[in-house]
Automatic annotation (TrEMBL):
Organism: Alligator sinensis (Chinese alligator)
One MF term in the entry's GO annotations: zinc ion binding
The Vps41 C-terminal RING finger domain, residue ranges: 789-840
Protein name per UniProt: Vacuolar protein sorting-associated protein 41 homolog
UniProt biased composition (Acidic residues): 14-26
Vps41 beta-propeller domain location: 30-359
Function: Plays a role in vesicle-mediated protein trafficking to lysosomal compartments including the endocytic membrane transport pathways.
CHCR repeats mapped onto the chain: 568-712
Membrane topology: Peripheral membrane protein
Family as reported in the entry's similarity comment: Belongs to the VPS41 family.
Gene that produces this protein: VPS41
Length: 854
């Protein structure tokens, strides 16, 4: 700790080597302040000898026999002149209402701080220690112990008199004592003892490890972690003892409790004080080192370590070297460590200084991160603990982080952090934007400027756009595309772009951007002109989105030149807005585009453009012959004579054949196939389609002197014409290629036909028999006749009301019923009767199936 004015708190450095202090990246666990105010005044004239800590106040004893009560800031609240010599120890009960004091001249004083109660006695030897009962304020607990050459217990009896009793003697001076609950622990020259006040039995003796050290120079440090855990530090040895209950089966003559050493280890330096910190230990160590100048051993700065105990060793968590006043002249016995349990405050007492160590809170953690320029971590820590922070604000840390990044010239990251740190604060946003402008880095912050909630002043966005317009056309175009048009004054930006286009009128990027600006400004006509000039892909989207069909009525050719597929689809989808006639008229001078439009129209609907089908014949013939024949087949509005004329002029054989066939001139069509195409297969196929015997006769006559044609006919004619007709006409001696194979095929086809006929005959016979049996079963079934049925002729009930009378009923298969008398007398030529209603044919569905008589 560097020397400073006494009224100011002083920070403690973490490393023992000053040259390493700035390089250390490990965050300290504790922070330090020198206790000033009244303490500074006391230690200017006197020397501290001991101190005890209560959660409400402090009690400081000096070498001149004074005891001062101080508040936690070090201000003096009360003073006691106890003796003329050194105060050895001060003890307070848990309530802080009673205090015990002992001094080097043998005086012992126990008094009430808020009452007149007092005990005062002088012994014939120095009294090193005193400890009042933790519950001294309660009447049954008026006890305290003192230690010089022996350990005495003072107990106040019913007569209000103090009665002493010896607890221990004979092992040298009592060096330290700590009272917790019902247990008293003390140290003498031989070791540490623990007394159980309930059973009045001593339950353990922990011997001193290093007997070579003088116990007066290297005193024992005792500390109760809780009611059953004692921490012992002596020399360089640390032991953690646990008081446990003995099992009833092990009692015999032994005490009911025993002590187990759970941790034991040695440190590098001599221990001056101990205190618990959760499951860790705070250790104040006295350090000696070799002087580089004199090469002799000298006193170094004391250390305050936080360690994690292990069964036989420890792990060092942190280590701080403390620059207390006069450390060069101090001994191990001059240092003391006291602590306040409730607040984790640790007081390091030396003759000329009192230092307070505290656990570092989140504000301290953030301070350290900021000091080490770890702004990202500091910002995260602040966000996590924003409810518990007292000193810092997230915004201040964030702004410091942005400034740090800008100093490092990491402008992109600084701009990115603005989004998170500045949030919706428009004033801060505008302030930071101007800072970026001053260093010429508006481009860096442009992607992160807010565009919705909040929205900055239009001037901010215009300033950024002008920056891009001066140096980066592509970046400018990107911002115009990404930013909503209401962020800036559109007219100002349009004028700026127009001014730049005067210098570079063919710049496509600026033209495209200007079109987008016109779109934002709802000047769609101008935007459309630019898009068409640039042949930009968004032109169709613009037309659709803003319904600009009235504006493109005279620009259809331009749209078709740009992308005929999209243009045609758009025109056909919006036929009600731009009529077919208007499109055809506009494309009159561009027949190739006219054909594309009419062709797609025909594909969608064969009848909509029927008035242009005659025109389309020429267009197909000129620009799209492969689709001419499908068009002729599908169109019902095409003039066949005109089509035939065009196809004959252009010698389109296939199309001419189709037209001749469609016009009924099949013989001419077949002749053209044979004479022009010389394709026997196509001729045969055509003859099959027409299924005309005369055509087959013409085909045979034409082919009879052409062996290849005869082969083709022999292979394909079998199922349509009797092959004998062809074979009889073949001249003798004519060589016909593959004749044998063709004849074999004819025979195979004939055999196949015979097999198919026989198979069909079998199927028909089986089906007929099955149906006959089914009909027989149906006709054999009975028919229910009751009083609800009527005669279909006379419409009276079929059954007579008087069942005793004779009657005769006819029931037909159609389920119609008649009185026999109501039916006509059967003809002698046809004795079978039929239902008059259903059928007049012999044995039809109405033939009789049942005659009932009675």
């Amino acid at each position: 700790m560097a020397e400073a004015e006494e009224k100011e708190p002083v920070s403690m450095e973490e490393s023992t080597d000053e040259s390493e202090e700035d390089e250390s990246e490990e965050e300290p666990k504790l922070k330090y302040e020198r206790l000033t105010n009244g303490v500074s005044e006391i230690l200017q004239k006197d020397v501290a000898s001991c101190m005890t800590v209560h959660e409400k106040f402090l009690a400081l004893g000096t070498h001149y026999g004074k005891v001062y009560l101080l508040d936690v800031q070090g201000n003096i609240t009360q003073k006691f002149d106890v003796s003329q010599v050194k105060i050895n120890q001060i003890s307070l009960d848990e309530s802080g209402e009673h205090m015990g004091i002992c001094s080097e001249d043998g005086k012992v004083q126990v008094c009430g701080l808020y009452s007149g109660e007092e005990f005062l006695e002088t012994f014939d030897c120095p009294i090193k220690i005193v400890a009042v009962h933790p519950q001294f304020v309660k009447s049954p607990c008026k006890q305290f112990v003192t230690g010089g050459k022996k350990l005495l217990l003072y107990d106040k009896n019913w007569m209000n008199r103090w009665k002493p009793s010896v607890l221990h003697e004979g092992e040298g001076n009592i060096r330290n004592v700590k009272w917790r609950g019902h247990l008293i622990a003390w140290a003498n020259n031989m070791g540490v003892k623990i007394l159980d006040m309930i059973s009045k039995q001593r339950i353990t003796n922990v011997p001193r490890d290093n007997i070579s050290l003088r116990p007066d120079m290297y005193p024992c440090s005792l500390c109760w972690k809780d009611n059953l855990t004692l921490i012992i530090g002596w020399g360089n040895s640390v032991k953690i003892c646990s008081v446990k209950e003995r099992h009833a089966s092990e009692m015999r003559d032994l005490p009911s409790r025993y002590v187990e050493i759970v941790f034991q280890f040695e440190t590098e330096f001599y221990i001056s004080g101990l205190a618990p910190l959760c499951d860790q230990l705070v250790v104040l160590s006295y350090v000696k080192e070799i002087s580089e100048k004199t090469e002799t051993e000298c006193c170094a700065r004391p250390r305050l370590d936080i360690i994690q105990p292990l069964p036989e060793s420890f792990e060092e968590i942190s280590s701080d070297a403390l620059t207390v006043r006069g450390f060069q002249e101090n001994e191990c016995r001059d240092y003391h460590l006291e602590y306040s349990e409730g607040e984790s405050l640790f007081y390091i007492i030396s003759p000329r200084d009192v230092v307070v160590a505290k656990e570092r809170d989140q504000d301290d953690h953030i301070d350290w991160l900021l000091e080490k320029k770890k702004y990202e971590e500091a910002l995260m820590a602040a966000e996590i603990s924003q409810k518990t922070m007292k000193k810092h604000k997230i915004l201040d840390i964030g702004l410091a982080y942005i400034n740090h990044l800008m100093e490092k010239r990491d402008y992109d990251l600084a701009a990115r952090k603005c989004q998170k740190i500045l949030g919706k604060n428009t004033d801060l946003w505008e302030f930071e934007v101007y800072k970026f402008k001053e260093i010429g880095q508006l481009k860096a912050i442009s992607p992160y400027l807010p565009r919705r909630d909040p929205i900055l002043k239009p001037l901010i966005y215009e300033m950024v756009l002008h920056e891009f317009l001066e140096s980066d056309y592509e970046g400018f175009a990107t911002l115009i595309k990404e930013w909503p048009g209401d962020l800036y004054n559109n007219a100002i930006i349009v004028q700026a772009v127009v001014d730049h286009l005067k210098k570079d009128p063919q710049n496509r990027t600026l033209l495209r951007t200007l079109a987008e600006l016109y779109t934002y400004d709802q000047r769609y006509g101008k935007a459309l002109e630019i898009y068409l000039t640039l042949r930009h892909k968004d032109v169709f989207q613009l037309i659709h989105k803003h319904n600009l069909f009235s504006s493109i009525r005279d620009k259809i050719v331009l749209l078709m030149d740009f992308d005929s597929e999209k243009a045609v689809d758009m025109l056909l989808d919006n036929e009600a807005k731009i009529s077919i006639d208007k499109v055809v008229e506009e494309l009159e001078n561009r027949p190739e585009l006219q054909h594309v439009y009419l062709h797609k129209l025909f594909k969608r609907d064969h009848h909509k453009g029927q008035r242009y089908h005659e025109k389309q014949i020429s267009l197909y013939a000129e620009y799209d012959r492969p689709n001419l024949l499908p068009f002729l087949r599908d169109s019902t509005h095409c003039p066949l004579e005109k089509a035939l004329e065009i196809c004959q002029q252009r010698n389109f054989v296939e199309e001419t054949v189709y037209l001749l066939s469609r016009m009924g001139n099949s013989r001419s069509a077949l002749k053209m196939i044979m004479e022009e195409l010389h394709d026997v297969d196509k001729a045969i196929e055509f003859a099959k389609e027409q299924d005309d015997g005369e055509l087959w006769e013409d085909l045979i006559l034409y082919s009879i002197d052409k062996p290849p044609f005869i082969t083709g006919l022999l292979n394909n004619i079998g199922t349509h014409v009797d092959p004998i007709l062809l074979i009889h006409r073949i001249k003798e001696g004519m060589e016909i290629p593959n004749l044998r194979d063709s004849l074999v095929k004819i025979l195979q086809d004939y055999n196949l036909q015979i097999l198919l006929r026989e198979g069909c005959k079998k199927i028909l016979v089986a089906d007929s028999l099955s149906l006959l049996k089914k009909m027989h079963r149906t006709q054999m079934k009975g028919v229910l006749v009751d009083e609800e049925n009527i005669c279909e002729s006379c419409l009276s009930p079929i059954l007579p009301s008087d069942a005793s009378k004779s009657f005769s009923v006819m029931v037909f298969h159609c389920r119609h019923m008649f009185h026999k008398d109501c039916l006509p007398v059967p003809n002698t030529a046809f004795p079978v009767q039929f239902c008059n209603i259903c059928s007049a044919k012999h044995r039809g569905p109405g033939s009789t199936i049942l005659e009932m008589k009675k």
